[in-house]
UniProtKB/TrEMBL annotation, chain A:
Biological classification of the source: Bacteria, Pseudomonadati, Pseudomonadota, Alphaproteobacteria, Hyphomicrobiales
The entry's keywords: Cell membrane, Membrane, Plasmid, Transmembrane, Transmembrane helix, Transport
Organism: Sinorhizobium americanum
Swiss-Prot/TrEMBL GO biological process terms: amino acid transport
Protein name per the record: Inner membrane amino-acid ABC transporter permease YecS
Gene3D superfamilies (UniProt xref): MetI-like
UniProtKB/TrEMBL annotation, chain B:
One GO BP annotation of this record: amino acid transport
Residue ranges of the TM segments: 27-49, 69-89, 147-170, 190-217
Name by which UniProt lists this protein: Inner membrane amino-acid ABC transporter permease YecS
Matches recorded under PANTHER family: ABC TRANSPORTER PERMEASE PROTEIN, MEMBRANE COMPONENT OF AMINO ACID ABC TRANSPORTER
Family: Belongs to the binding-protein-dependent transport system permease family. HisMQ subfamily.
Record's keyword terms, sorted: Cell membrane, Membrane, Plasmid, Transmembrane, Transmembrane helix, Transport
Amino acid sequence: MTLKTFGFDQFGFLIFSLQWTILLTVIALIGGGLLGFAVALARTAQLKPVRIAAATYIQVIQGIPVLMILFLSYYGLSLAGFELPPLVAAGASMTIYASGYLAEIWRGCIQAVPKQQWEASESLAMTRLQQYRYVILPQAIRISLPPTVGFAVQVVKNTSITSIIGFVELARAGQLINNATFQPFRVFLAVAALYFVVCYPLSQLSRLLERRLHAGSSR
Amino acid sequence: MSYTFQFGVLAQYQDQILSGICLTIKISVLSIVLGCAAGIVLSSIRSIWGGTVRFLVDAYVEIIRNTPFLVQLFIVYFGLPGLGLRVGADTAALIGMTINLAAYSTEIIRAGIEAVHKSQIEAGEALGFTRFQIYRHVIIVPAIAKVYPALCSQFVLMMLASSICSAISTQELAASAAFIESQTYRSFEIYIAVTLIYLVLALALRAVLAVVGMWLFGRRVARRTMTALPEVQA
């Protein structure tokens, strides 16, 4: 029996699994974005207990490894009686992970809007909701674009951790191919190259947005 | 849901957990020291020499920062033996973490170096400093002081990411957890306990780094290091 070598078919399988990596990233960013936005608002709320609860949430998520979030949601959800496909556990844990970091990033962006903007909109008799909707968020979103895109790169990379619970995304596909071909150097370099192809443009985009933002504000 | 938590079974695996904690601390501290040193060296030679050297350093930083840590570990642990370089799981973890952290610290310190204003260097020249004195007192130390909090956040992230090394069979804390889980099937309890241990380790590391920052750069930098965490009092 001869071993398979790392050829076109194998590379095709990597490309195919890259779709799962991207799908997982999108789930994490949408889910984490919604949850993170809520936490960011809570973090800047007027009620102190709400602020403290949000800050604690952020601190805990940022203080534990992504791998532990993954294991806890994997085993925790199955204990609660759900028979889960790995995609749900992976999606749930990536959502929780992303929410903790996005909340902190966006809190910074909301607080970066000058205080006068709050005062001016308050003096126009806007309600708190109107202040957020018409004055604060439009400015905060502009500030938040570069770090958010930068964080998307972290999410893409961290989806590789879900391979540890057996979710077949790019890193796991690499392992499977390596088990069949025993050409680890080639296989994992190809895997790394594919991650790079996804992440590098995002990193550059984040940098570009950052430069554009500063060019805009110094004018 | 009728599940009875039994944290009691964990008690008999104390040794496992302790040895896991020890290895996590060991590889984290070593990689922080080595990675930070490499970051200082790389960002320095990058700012001194232009051209090819700068391109190579930048390429290294970009490649590491745009690929997952797990895949980097796989290349070190599974790939290097193919090139005739056999490394154990602990060494591979240390190499992977150092390579990874070196790239991030290079990027962070580079930002600090570029933030040093030109007039500062000119002031140094006016005071008759030698080029080395200028580099030491005007550029690198203030640069590191400026980015120290960001650097510390990266160190904490690296310590947490060391849990991924369990995937290449390094017997650190996450691997201890997996082992105990395989013995007892008390997966939820063990992972809750280990998650709490990581949380404590992260807070402790942050505090230690703040003390180091106070010793190196003074009180102001140390305070920023602690508050790089989300503040509980807004």
